[in-house]
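Project standup — Tuesday

K.O.: blocked on the structure for the chain from last sprint. Re-posting the sequence here as requested.
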Amino acid sequence: MCELFAMSSRVPTDARASLAAFARHGGLEAHHKDGWGIAYYADEDVRLVKEAEPASYSKCMRFLDEHPFTSGVVLSHIRRATQGRMAMKNCQPFARELGGRMHVFAHNGDLRFEALRAGLPLRHFEPVGDTDSEYAFCALLERMRPLRRHGGIAPLHERLAVVARFAASLRALGPANFLYADGDALFMHAHRRSPGGGAAPRPPGLHLLQRRCAPDQSVVLAASVPLTEERGWQALQEGELVAAQAGAIVARVRVAPAKAELAVA
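H.V.: unblocked you, prediction finished:
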């Protein structure tokens, strides 16, 4: 299956070390050779780089390593195609505008596409590519659309509730690990993922690490598998949804299949 990586930091920081470890899984240390992508926030916009090539051997990835950037929110994805051909339009993350903010999404899993279309119909957003993941992102934006505020943003608990209900819907259709950023918060949902070799998907779907690097700096990292040997990586429970803002965990949700019980930190 694909792999996910995300970072939220209090002070914009350089994510090259984590990205280098992550990129090695894209064809060098693992078999995710069907594309990769990275999205990171710069001011109020998003810079997005995607390729339908293995991340391990990518000149674009090398360019990013040799020309460092800093950001407060980073999302990245390396792809092993299950639905949709090898093409840039099918590489993740995906980015769209809603309510004057850039929203970014990446998914790891394999959803039943016909059931996805039937259960989460689209009206205002349409996918460019032909993956279940991009369709799911459009479906999430449909459900976030009523909360849009021009010149502002809905309270966190309202957004969290929508994302939690969306996560519950996806989990009924297949493995549903995803990362979602709305320009204010980073949402990380863990479900199940396949360890490879034909094994059935099972938890954990995501791991989390919190770092305090200096008195004024804190960082939250999420990855499908731990990227370093350091202590502190925690496997998220099946159906756990975590929200981070500025390098701090601000909410946790245990998402049941039929309902979501919120527990804001």
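K.O.: great, moving the ticket to review. The chain has one domain: 3-264. The first strand starts at residue 3 and ends at 13.
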